[in-house]
């Protein structure tokens, strides 16, 4: 059974989500004798989560199938399965006990004349065993035994659930990345068109470029705005000129623009990078510098992009510069970026409180030694007035929540 699914999954590893879901549904129907069925993929976040039908098949209704969406709610059969991860075997869709939280929506039957009887609905499991979609099978043909789906069918499907789920999850991720790459291309074209316009257009361009650099990351939120404000604040504490402070206030946002040029497979890899992948990731400062250096107005941004991973003790990259060899703007952004990274939730860590973040920045932990990483004079300024960083975080985090 597992081999049958692996065969058609591995035979074409770069199948589209639609193509793969069609083949998965066809195989599930073949194994269970179902007349019809639908594959749903889970989309969205929080209260906006919904199930998109990506494959619909029906041997009785010959009309072209229409794709549709269903909210993730325990009021519907597939919504309940997506929310709970449970498998449902229903003998009669029209005779669901009243004490169940879900009910059957008969609108399709009424519109087409199709008669739904038995239903089998099970969750597709992806990374970390989380539901990423639902397969709903309808009307087992009475080839043998009763015309309802049986526990034997659930046991038949269970061994391949994760294989299929993860294959569909990979296909969905590839589809999202393709869409994001298209969006990224549009944003880069837009940036090129705005370069010759006024100062206002220049600032719009900077913001678009910074946002485009973060298309790959769903979890960054207002990261670039916060890093701008932290950097501006720290520059003023350091006694920098007004012009320097104003320039770093927009230049800091572009510190990771080089990630647009990093191999996407490396950028989205789960788990530890190997030596080749780590070397590719560590090229993003040079890539960023190459993108920005051609513009006279972005000289500081290019400098920050190139040097913000250098460390005070000379242990950083890409050049191993130390102390005041590292440009001041890059030393400032290094602290600002680290503060925001510690405050932000990531797939591999929770969001840290302001107090814990300050403690790590000033005293270190098993991954960070402030004496090695940061300019001690700038760190002393941060130690004296770090509460203002916390205020920036709260203000822009609140704004991020309101905009969501």
Explain this structure to me?
By secondary structure, the protein is of the alpha+beta class. The protein folds into two domains: 180 residues, GAF domain (Beta-Lactamase), CATH 3.30.450.40; 181 residues, Hypothetical protein af1432, CATH 1.10.3210.10. Helix content is 51%, strand content 10%. The protein has 18 helices and six strands. It has a six-stranded antiparallel β-sheet, sandwiched between helices. β5 and β6 form a beta hairpin. α8 packs antiparallel against α18 and α9 packs across α13. The longest helix is centred in the middle third of the chain and has 34 residues. The radius of gyration is 27 Å and the shape is elongated. The two termini are 44 Å apart. The mean pLDDT is 85. It comes from Azospirillum palustre. One of its GO terms (molecular function) is phosphoric diester hydrolase activity. This is Transcriptional regulator.
What is this structure, in a nutshell?
It comes from Azospirillum palustre. One of its GO terms (molecular function) is phosphoric diester hydrolase activity. With about 400 residues, this protein is of the alpha+beta class.
List keywords for this structure.
about 400 residues; alpha+beta; Beta-Lactamase; Hypothetical protein af1432; 2 domains; 6-stranded antiparallel beta sheet; 18 helices; elongated; GAF-like_dom_sf; HD_GYP_dom
